[in-house]
Structure formats: structure tokens, C-alpha cells
Specification:
The protein is mostly helical. It has 23 helices and six strands. It has a six-stranded parallel β-sheet, with helices on both faces. α4 crosses α13, α8 packs across α10 and α13 packs across α16. The N and C termini lie far apart (86 Å). 48% of the residues are buried.
Length: 539
């Protein structure tokens, strides 16, 4: 039995690699290939899903890690900078999309409960797709990128709340539905309070010690997500609540970005098994029967959702180019839509036909919107005249330059030299984000008045985790040439246009950095020597 399941998983992984390679050639997100692999591995094609329980367990791990990362990404700096537009646009778009989606589902003959599920599934956009594609374009740091991510945060919070309600209603207890819902919400509040206490007084200290080992840090993140998901199940809540709360509990720590960067690849691999399980539940008969509704609903998602965003952001005073880029980015349904429908299917509230319908809408919208995102500027040039209908007068419109930056400087390295730099900046009233691998150094930086972020500058993806959109000045106080060079290369690859200060201890390194007009070289030894000479001359 175990050997048979092992061989099936091996074949599925090989099929996923092949499908992923094809998706890459077609410039498609790998999630699309995951869905296709799930269908091919299911009973309608190769029937590779021999170990159903093992696949289901892996799928649960994938969903738990996904929700953990969603909670972990509750970036309060971003919420502060784009909170109003993200909240207004996010809530309004969800309400309008759900209302129209419900009406369309009813017109296609679905009864109220099923129409509700379909409507909710249409409202959410894909965090994985948007972050990946906008990130590949180096535009997460732009105004529209920050707004899109802010709207996703609002949607993710709503989808977790929807899961709580669906699980509570779908698995009724001894009392009424209202009573069960109140008990669930109260239990969730108590659970959240206990975890918040641990986050405030325990987790930071634990992570300060664990973070000295990257392997142990990764293991801790996975264990924390799965353990809290399991505890959530044991106390009568859903697994999704526990995993999400686990992420939220670490979102305010300095280790948020480091944990997210280490776990994102694991999430992608484990989510493959969710799509395998999903594919095993689909049949071509259901898919063919739902083809016409899927096309109509896909057109609504691809066109209707962006129009709602255009109207809301135009009313709030944003320029048409910002509204267009944001709306186009959100023109697909989410992996959470599939998780919600799969949850309803498992609870017996929707049938396999609805599962096929929403899966088809996911495939259609994710595939087409991916090209929308890749060629946004070309599309805008053709629709510029139409988009001006949604824009206020130029004097009232909001653009990139009107958005205040969160930090006056990001300082990488909080050692002795870095602490001096941080101290000088904070004492002059500047806001500083200090980044370091050493928890003790970060504690000293906090004492100096800086905000802190845990990060390893030796990590190849280090520059990607820095909130470079929140500053126009970045300082690296690390003494070695390799670290400074790697950071410079990473910033260049991300299209960072701010001022960069790099440290050089020798003339050769200083001459190398001097060739880049964007870089100002810091010579700490030379500065110290000059200071000493001046003091000696004063005597």
C-alpha cells in the first residue's frame, strides 16, 4: 500500500514538472499547470491518485501553510500607507461582485445556497498569482502594486471569516445555527487572545534564540502553523482558523519576512496536492455541462471586477493608469475560491457540477488575466480614452509622488558601525528600519528608536524581502565587499531608483562602487582616521 502510494506520488510529481515546464513556455503561472495536473491525475485520465488519504493529508498541509503565510503577510506598514483605498475598494468590490455573481448564478438555475457559494467564489482574487506576476515585473513597490496587495489583504481576511461561517453552518451542533456561530466566534476570540498573549510575551524571545539556525527557523514556522491548526480542530474550530491565527501571531515580529521567504516554496509544493485532490473530484461530464455558465462567469470576472475597481478608485481620486493597473491585476478568481468550494463539497452543500464550474472559471480567468498583467501597459494605451471617464480632474488625482514614504532610510546591518548610523539618523528625527540577522543587534536598534526586520543579507533573495517601496535611501553597513555587491545587484534587479550607500574598507572596493552613479561609498576606517587626525591637530 505504502509502496503503491509512493510510486503514484512520484508519477504525479514528474507530471507536475512536465506541466510546469509547459506553463513556463506559455508564460503562465504554475498554479494553472497544477490544476491541469490534478485533472490528469484524477480518475478521468490517468487515475494516479491511489493513496487518497495520503494525498488528502498533503493537501491539508498545503492549505495550512497557505493560510499561515496569508496571516504572516498582514503588513501593517502597507495597511497604513494604502489602508483607506484598500479597505474601501476591497469591501465595495467584494459586495458588488457577490451581488452580481449571485444574480448570474440564479439565472443559470442554481438554488440559493449553491448560488451563494458561486458568488463568494467569484469575489476573491489570487494572492499567489498577483504577487508572483507583479513581482516578476518588479512592480510590487509601485503605488498600484501596494494598493493591489492591500486589497488582497482585505479579501484574505474576509475569506477566512467566510470559512468560519461555512464550517459552523455546515457542521451544526446541538443548538441553533446562530448559537453555534456565536460559540464559534467566542471560541475563536479566546483562542486568538491566548495566541496573542504568547506572541507578545513568548514567541519573540523563542525566535530570538531559534533564528540563529536557519533550518530550525523553517522547522519552527512549519510546526507552529500545523500545531495551531491541529489545536484549532481539537477545540472545535476549523483547521483554517488555527493556521491563519498562527501566521497573524508572528506578523508583527521582526522575523516575518524571513519566515515567509523560507516557506513559500514549501507552500507551492504542498498546494500541488490540494489541486491533485481537487482534480480527482472532477469529471469531464460535469465540466462540459458547466462550460457555458463558466464562460459567462469568467467574462464577468475578467471585465466586471476591473470596472468596479476603476469606478471606486476614480471616485477616490486616483489617476486612470493606477486604477487600470490595479483593476486588471485583480481580474481572476483565487486559489481560496477553490478551497471554499472544495470545503462546501466536502460538507455536502454543493455538488461536483459546481466544483467543476468554479474550477473552469479559475482556469479561464487565471490563464487570461496572466496575459492581462503581463501586457497591462499595451492594453492601457488602447483603452486610455475610455479610462479617462473614471478619472477626476488632474489637480485632484492621486499619483505616486503624493504618497508619503514610510521610512527615511533602511539600514542593513546593526552592528557597532550600523548602530552609530542608526543613532545619528533617529536622533535627528529620521524614521529608520534596521535589518539584521542578529537578534541582539536588532534589540539595540529598537532601543535607539528604529523599527526592525530580521533578515539574512547573505540570502540570494534578501533584496526581495526589503520594503524598498517605503524609502528612497538604503544604507548597507556590512564591512565585506561580497555582501555589499550582492545587495547592490539585488536592488538593481528590482529596479530600485533610490540612493544607495555601500561600505568599503579598501580602495579597490571603493573604486568599484564609485563606478555606479547611484551609489555613495562609505569609508568608515578613513572617516575614523580623518576624525582622529583632526583631533590631534586640534591639540
Amino acid at each position: 500500500m505504502v509502496e503503491g502510494s509512493f510510486v503514484s506520488v512520484a508519477l504525479i510529481l514528474a507530471l507536475a514538472v512536465a506541466a510546469g515546464a509547459i506553463a513556463k513556455l506559455l508564460r503562465q503561472p504554475i498554479v494553472v499547470s497544477f490544476i491541469i495536473v490534478g485533472i490528469l491525475a484524477g480518475p478521468t485520465a490517468f487515475n494516479l491518485v491511489a493513496g487518497a488519504e495520503e494525498i488528502r493529508l498533503f493537501a491539508k498541509f498545503g492549505i495550512a501553510i497557505l493560510l499561515f503565510l496569508v496571516g504572516l503577510k498582514l503588513d501593517f506598514h502597507m495597511i497604513r500607507s494604502t489602508g483607506k483605498v484598500a479597505l474601501v475598494a476591497g469591501l465595495t468590490q467584494v459586495a458588488f461582485t457577490a451581488a452580481v455573481g449571485f444574480g448570474l448564478a440564479v439565472l443559470f438555475g442554481f438554488e440559493a445556497t449553491t448560488a451563494f457559494y458561486i458568488a463568494v467564489a467569484l469575489t476573491f482574487s489570487s494572492t499567489i498569482i498577483i504577487i508572483k506576476l507583479i513581482g516578476d515585473k518588479r512592480e510590487l513597490d509601485t503605488l498600484y502594486g501596494r494598493i493591489a496587495v492591500g486589497i488582497l489583504i482585505v479579501q484574505d481576511i474576509l475569506v477566512v471569516a467566510a470559512m468560519v461561517i461555512i464550517v459552523t453552518i455546515g457542521t451544526p451542533g446541538e443548538g441553533s445555527v446562530i448559537t453555534d456561530l456565536v460559540i464559534t466566534l467566542a471560541s475563536s476570540a479566546v483562542f486568538l487572545g491566548v495566541v496573542a498573549f504568547a506572541s507578545r510575551f513568548v514567541l519573540e524571545k523563542v525566535l530570538d534564540w531559534i533564528s540563529k539556525s536557519p533550518e530550525l527557523t523553517l522547522l519552527f514556522g512549519v510546526a507552529w502553523a500545523i500545531v495551531l491548526a491541529a489545536i484549532s480542530i481539537l477545540i472545535g474550530l476549523s483547521m483554517e482558523i488555527g493556521a491563519f491565527v498562527a501566521g497573524v501571531s508572528l506578523a508583527s515580529t521582526a522575523y516575518r519576512e524571513s519566515l515567509a521567504a523560507r516557506m513559500v516554496s514549501l507552500r507551492d509544493v504542498m498546494l500541488l496536492f490540494f489541486f491533485i485532490e481537487l482534480g480527482a473530484s472532477l469529471t469531464f461530464a460535469d465540466a462540459l455541462g458547466q462550460l457555458w455558465p463558466a464562460i459567462v462567469l469568467s467574462v464577468f470576472v475578467l471585465v466586471g471586477k476591473p470596472l468596479i475597481i476603476f469606478a471606486i478608485m476614480g471616485w477616490m481620486g486616483y489617476r486612470s493608469i493606477t486604477s487600470f493597473r490595479t483593476g486588471v491585476a485583480l481580474a481572476q478568481i483565487s486559489e481560496f475560491s477553490l478551497i471554499l468550494i472544495a470545503l462546501g463539497f466536502a460538507l455536502g452543500q454543493v455538488d461536483s457540477a459546481v466544483l467543476s464550474l468554479v474550477t473552469l472559471v479559475a482556469v479561464f480567468t487565471i490563464t487570461i488575466s496572466s496575459y492581462f498583467i503581463l501586457y497591462t501597459d499595451r492594453l492601457y494605451s488602447k483603452m486610455q480614452g475610455f479610462m479617462h471617464l473614471f478619472e477626476r480632474a488632474k489637480s485632484e488625482a492621486i499619483d505616486e509622488q503624493s504618497q508619503a514614504l514610510s521610512f527615511d532610510a533602511i539600514v542593513v546591518g546593526s552592528g557597532r558601525f550600523g548602530s552609530e548610523v542608526i543613532s545619528g539618523l533617529t536622533s535627528s528625527g529620521s524614521s529608520v528600519l534596521a535589518v539584521d540577522l542578529d537578534p541582539d543587534a536588532l534589540a539595540r536598534a529598537r532601543d535607539l528608536g528604529a523599527e526592525t526586520l530580521f533578515g539574512d543579507v547573505g540570502d540570494p533573495d534578501f533584496a526581495k524581502m526589503l520594503p524598498i517601496h517605503q524609502t528612497d535611501t538604503l544604507v548597507c553597513t556590512a564591512p565585506d565587499r561580497t555582501t555589499n555587491s550582492q545587495l547592490l545587484d539585488g536592488l538593481k534587479s528590482l529596479g530600485y531608483e533610490g540612493k544607495i550607500y555601500l561600505t568599503a574598507l579598501d580602495n579597490q572596493t571603493a573604486e568599484m562602487f564609485a563606478k555606479d552613479p547611484q551609489v555613495t561609498t562609505i569609508r568608515p576606517l578613513k572617516m575614523a582616521a580623518n576624525r582622529i587626525v583632526k583631533q590631534l591637530r586640534a591639540y
